[in-house]
Amino acid sequence: MSEAIWKPNVVVAAIAERDGRFLLIEEETSSGLRLNQPAGHWDPGETLLDAVTRETLEESAYHFRPTALVGIYSLPMHGSEVTYLRFAFAGEITGHEPDRALDTGIVRALWQTPEEIRDGRDRHRSPLLLDCIEDYLAGQRFPLAMLRHYA
Predict the structure, then answer these.
(1) Angle of CA points 59, 20, 40, to nearest 5°
(2) What CATH superfamily is the domain 9-145?
(3) pLDDT tens-digit profile of 69-120?
(4) Residue 54 and residue 115: Cα distance in Å, rounded?
(5) Is the overall model pTM greater than 0.70, yes or no?
(6) Inter-residue contact 24 to 111 (CB < 8 Å)
């Protein structure tokens, strides 16, 4: 008798701060318009750093260079067998393509203060948005050298 092998959905998220504001995206979800960091699935053949750079550009039109790992977060989706494993990266914005089309479902990119993010909890796609920001604000950073990719 064989059992199915459980595999979490691996995602990456970008935490970019500029002038005391954080880059977020507003996106259409089954629960209506929600806020999140630029984030998405890790694709085959990519490193985690490639994935967060790509996802940030696709969802926000901003170029992102990761500089540190803020944390790794596990979020089971109650009522389903899905669990998300999020790698959240701090980094810097290195450019912007304001005329670039955003991914399907993304309404816009915006910059919010920590207070605005805390006050908007009811619009967050998941609790990970605020948890990642709070960890970042607390100074939590891990060197990227702890990540190793083998080809």
Answers:
(1) 20
(2) Nucleoside Triphosphate Pyrophosphohydrolase (3.90.79.10)
(3) 999 999 998 878 889 999 999 999 999 999 999 999 999 999 999 999 999 9
(4) 28
(5) yes
(6) yes
120 vs 112: CA distance, rounded Å: 10
Q: pLDDT per residue over 19-40, tens digit each?
A: 999 999 999 999 999 999 999 9
Q: Which residues, 6+ apart, have CB-to-CB distance to 90 below 8 Å? A: 15, 16, 17, 66, 67, 68, 69, 70, 136, 141
Helix (H) or strand (E) holding 87: strand 83-96
Rounded to the nearest 10°, the torsion over CA 111, 38, 68, 116 is 30
Q: Where are the domains of the chain?
A: 9-145
Query: Exposed, middle or buried: residue 116 (CB in 10 Å: 0-12, 13-18, 19+)?
Result: middle
H helix or E strand, kind and range, residue 9: strand 9-18
